[in-house]
Amino acid sequence: MNSRSKRNWRQRVAIGSNPERNRAHNRRVVLEVIRMHGHLGRTEIARRAQLTAQAVANIVEELLEEGLLIELGRLRSGRGQPPIQFAVNPNGPLTVGVEIAADRLVTVLLDLSGGLRGQSITPLTKTGPDVVPGKVAEEVKRLQSQLDADSAKLLGVGVVMPGPFEIEGMSSVGPATLPGWTGVDAVSLFSKATGEHVVIENDATAAAVGERLYGAGRQIGTFCYLYFGVGLGLGVIQDGRPLRGAFGNAGEIGHVGLVPRKGPVLHGPAGALERFASVYALREHLANAGIHVSTVEDIQRLHDEGSQPLAHWIELAADYLAPTVGMLENIFDPETVIFGGGLPNSVLDAVIMALDPLPVSVATRQQRTAPRILRGQTGQLTAALGAAALPLLDTVSPHLSVAAGSAA
Fold first, then answer.
1. pLDDT tens across 152-184, in order?
2. What's the predicted TM-score (pTM) here?
3. Fewer CB in a 10 Å sphere around the end CB: N or C, the chain?
4. Where are the stretches annotated Disordered (predicted)?
């Protein structure tokens, strides 16, 4: 991203509005400006947020009283009386993020500044709505107890699940989905189990938000994120905002059929992309060779040992993913495409290398400021981090409001 684009994007993320009816928006803008820059004085906050000094003074006072900000005092950096600095309170309210996958439950606890305060990854053998909400509530309480944090300090719980949501013939169909959830009011179930405000989102969209806030997408305003969960999903961040679609189902790329670089063309569900390029596809490929894996560590060990079946899958997946990247570039014109999720970094790097040569697309321009493909930086926690950001964003970030549903 060039300096002009970066500057324009930052301005879009944090511009306030003075009318009283937009007070809630202005509060989020002030918090976001401070969060982005670490600590600021009132005058600098007003300048960056494009709010009046009086509006900023009132909002800062409110946020201090609510425990969302802390006063750092005067930090000397030159001559004259330095302004009092304010920062987001890392010991203030917390948020919980939960990823419910077909084989595991990932839970994280974040503070308001985005700091990771606790995490867990536990296997799931039963994924139905009669079991999972209780498991989630148990993990939330366990993480809180480790920090001695009482529930009054929680802003809410973000829960992400594999989509698509409420689509006959697609939801709860296939190895990467969660059977039994069609027609279920998930928000109410999780809210009742945890006793907290709950937000639900598509896992790939949440993963893109997590990468945007905490990973390789922090300085990139527009990118596509290919999320390797058990299946394969797509999250799109455009001008700093997630692209959700009208019903929260944007990015179901795993159900798309594509022509590979080589090999036979399969039609219908048998030719769906995630049948060849996903964690499930890798496990199935290895099982056919008599190798059974259940964790990221198992896959990492195979890669370290130079496993030929793993190497063969990497080449096969790349044959499908290379045209996928070209298609995404032509449709969305992103600054880059990021690969991340439930595969070891070394395997993702190998897949990215095997994509060469990528097809010609609108991305093959001479003046590029980022590689066409990047590997994500947030690993297995990506979707859960994005999930934790969902209730956080209701308070902090005016442009990343991605809630698909909520309950008090």
1. 588 899 999 876 554 444 434 444 567 788 788
2. 0.81
3. C
4. 1-21
